[in-house]
Amino acid sequence: MISRRSFLGGLAAATVVVPLGARVASAASMSLVIANESGRGPLWVYVVGTDLATGQQCRLSADGALVPVSTNDNGPDGYTDYSIPVDGSRTLSLPKGMSGRVYVALGSQLRFRANPGNALAYPAGWVSSDPNYPVLHDCMEFTYDGAGMHCNVTMVDMLSVPLAISLSGASQQSTGRLRDGGRAAVFDALRGVPEFAGLVLDDLRVIAPGHGLDAGLFDGGYLGGWIDEVWDHYRSTTMTVTAGARTFTGSVQGDQFVFDNGVRAFSKPSTRDVLFCDGALAAPNDGVTGPVAAALGAGFNRGVLLDTGAQPVADAGTYYRRAVTNHYSRVMHENTVDGRAYGFAFDDVCEHASYIEDPNPSNLTLTLTRF
User: Fold this and answer.
1) Could you tell me the fold of the domain covering 224-323?
2) How many CB atoms lie within 10 A of CB 40?
């Protein structure tokens, strides 16, 4: 399986590029259906990302072409207009060989700026100074390459508009759907946890605790005691991480978690490192350090690193039982129909993420559900 941490930069099969720079849909394409069942509008959609054949940032046009991003696209206000209006529902043609995001915006359009180097600045709804902060918007992520369609609904950054995805091809799959009233339940549940209440931004969105930390809305030392407890425990016992057919065994030596078989030693992470699954827990896509970093990050967020030295722990029924834990992720999982969510970047460990893939896809439907 291609994880969220790797599929956005995945490789594509060789693709012919149209001389004018736009690659049009052909037999190697699939349907992308946008369905607005939210009860709100108007709705605009933006399909933006990377053309895997050229490495250029691109956007999908309404007629199914992958068009390179250009600073020439910025209008007099300094922003592009890559919007595609949707009235109820709309079917687009998505060519094979694109990796990126499908953004949806309700009530107002999003503003994407093409920066020098033809690099697109994406919305950051967790940043109060971002021009898109007041807009109800959200996104799904995908890669459509030679191995098929790989896609997810993500709450890693925030939850604003409840989304669900359905993928047809070799089989029929769906994920991401919140239970009825789920959006309001998420907002209410986080308001009820004092340390997390500041992450609820009126009725616009809830933001992930890592972003809240950076914005001064979340305690930067929240997980410090839990991190110290784990570090102290593994000074006198060992952890064994299983990744496929390989195992890696380690313990804390000095102030580093040291594993065998070529794994990079890990310094003690901060609360921010755990929440972002980065910094001391950065996971290279190397099949060695990466899986161990992911297991540590998942275990810290889920609160299971002291349950057993055999990691990662697959039983979701054991997650988030500690008083000090990632309640943001807990609440997301509690409010999805299938129990799957992307509450943090390593939530794909043991396949609990809202992620689906198909090797022979024909149709991907993104639904804005009622709220």
Assistant:
1) Metal Transport, Frataxin; Chain A (3.30.920)
2) 14
Q: With CA atoms as reference, report the closest residue to 150 among 93, 99, 106.
A: 99
- Cα(113)–Cα(125) distance, rounded to whole angstroms? 15
Q: How far is it, in rounded angstroms, from Cα 26 to Cα 64?
A: 9
> Is the separation of the CB atoms in 171 and 194 below 8 Å?
no
Confidence of residue 25 (pLDDT cuts 50, 70, 90): very low
Residue-averaged pLDDT of the chain:
94
The strands making up 200-201's β-sheet, listed across from edge to edge, are 158-159, 205-207, 200-201
Q: What is the pLDDT of residues 187-242, one digit of tens each?
A: 999 999 999 999 999 999 999 999 999 999 999 999 999 999 999 999 999 999 99
354: helix, strand or coil: coil
Close Cβ partners of 228 (under 8 Å, ≥ 6 residues apart): none
The domain limits of the chain are: 4-192+334-368, 224-323
Residues identified as active-site:
141, 157
**Rounded distance between C-alpha atoms, residue 8 and residue 52, angstroms:** 10
Strand 29-36 and strand 363-368: the pairing is parallel
- Give the pLDDT of residue 13: 28
Closest CA to 160 of 235, 77, 110, 104: 104
Ramachandran category for residue 109: left, alpha or beta (phi over 0 → left; psi -120 to 50 → alpha)? beta
Q: Which fold has domain 4-192+334-368?
A: Thaumatin (2.60.110)
Mean pLDDT over 9-20 rounds to: 33
CB atoms within 10 A of CB 29: 17
Exposed, middle or buried, 317 (CB in 10 Å: 0-12/13-18/19+)? exposed
If we measure between CA atoms, which residue out of 47, 57, 119 comes closest to residue 84? 47
